[in-house]
Amino acid sequence: MKNYYEVLGLSEGASHAEIKKAYFKLVRKYTPEKDPETFREIREAYEYLKNVREEKGPSFPRPADPWAGRMLDNILRWEKSGDAEMFRDACEEAVNYYPDEIQFHFLMGVAQRRAGNTGKSVKTFENLVKREPENKWFQRELALSYQERGYTRKAAPAFEKALEMGCRDTDFILSASLSFKELGWYAKAQALLWDLANSERHWSREELPELLDAVAGLIVSSQQTGKQIPECIRLFKNTLKQYSIYLEEYADIIISIMGAVLVGSRKSEDTAQDQKEIFEILKESFHSDLSVNALSLLKQEALAARMYDDDRLGDTIRHSIDTFFIRDEQDETYVYDVLDMKLCMLKEREEILPQLEILENEYPECYEKIRSFADRLRSGKPLDHLKDSMQKQYAALDKYEEGGRYFQLYPEEKRRSYGKVVYQDEEFRPYVNPHKKIGRNDPCPCGSGKKYKHCCMNKQNA
How far apart are CA 242 and CA 236, in angstroms? Predict the structure, then answer.
């Protein structure tokens, strides 16, 4: 099938540079004076191809029949309008009138897929591939139609064959990588995306979402294979650095990718510095309140994840991460949870002290949240009064809250705090002498050392 590429002596898929070079070479040979007809064909081919990106498909010669040409013009107008159903109907009508015009079949297959008739599209391109097995564009569209139809097991091999035939446009590579991952071909998807995202190509502002999509897919694939996680995160960092002036515009995409970056960082120990640099780049690039707030939340999540994975930190510090560093102070249970963790830290003071050193040196953002309390723990001064004060407040709130660790881990403190006998059924019953009336100012019979009116009397009247 002769087409515009053949007019210029090129194979399908030639680059714009190759098209331009071939054109100037031919027009010097076939000048308008010497061979006006050939010159016209060369000029027509060049004008068409210089504005056609490879991903838009093959070039077809204009139909010789004038009426077929008018039908083609009508089809292209409907394609440009975005009306998928009219585009499809115009194509099917053209195929009925001109069944031997192959480009009408090609356009019909594309239109059928856009209109949601994926089964018909598959059949159309299966027939075209059977008709011209070596046509990479037919193979390309068949792979896309299989994918759209949900034929996962057919799509992946079709994508692989089209790639081998030379289909390398960005949209196709992204679709192919997705198909490979759906079939479990993670290594192939990763290799494909790596070549795309790590190329020396300069991406335009409008193309940046496609590049970010490729990098995101690459990071996810690296986690699934367990290979090249640091390299993929570093590539993401370098991409952000190179296109920093556009990052605010695509903040929502970048924030979503950062979720995958955080997961990848937890699986690799060699990404801490890269993650830190990524946050610095985004801090300089994000300006709107929405993106800045989203970045702040991500940074907290990253910090929390690092602390959760730090084996040097014990359970009490890990449980305190959410309370001290993520939770909103306006939450109803915030005061109770803070008391819960601080009491645990008081009880485990000797174990906590070396962990405070780690927090101060390696997690300064977190340490600042508890600096004053940490200073008291480190002071070496008696902490009994502080503990009693906090425990009284904690016991009062514990009646209404659930999930506290302090009384669960240290039931003896619960008995001391309530001044009650703990039965096996976990119910607490006050010990009161029924044969003697207790005065308001008498020592409380629970043994707390307080006056009855300041202890169990208030509890009974509550």
Answer: 10
What pLDDT shows up at residue 95?
97
Burial 346-361 (b: 16+ CB within 10 A, else e): bbbeeebeebbeebee
Q: What is the dihedral of CA 68, 90, 168, 164, to 10 degrees?
A: -80
Q: Which residues of the chain have pLDDT under 70?
A: 1-3, 12-13, 15-17, 47-48, 50-57, 267-269, 324-330, 419-441, 447-449, 451-454, 457-462
Closest CA to 241 of 201, 284, 302, 204: 284
CA nearest to 20, candidates 41, 38, 47, 55: 47
**At a CB cut-off of 8 Å and minimum separation 6, what does 221 contact?**
177, 181, 186, 189, 190, 193
* φ, ψ of residue 36 in degrees (nearest 5): -60, -35
Give me 315's structure tokens.
């359970």
User: Rounded CA gap, 111 and 169, in Å?
Assistant: 20
Residues sharing a CB contact under 8 Å with residue 231, sequence separation 6 or more, in sequence order:
222
Between the alpha carbon of residue 133 and those of residues 129, 140, 350, the distances in Å are 5, 11, 75
SS3 178: helix
Note whether 230 and 278 are within 8 A (CB).
no
Instruction: Specify the pTM.
Output: 0.64
**Do 317 and 355 contact (CB within 8 A), yes or no?**
yes
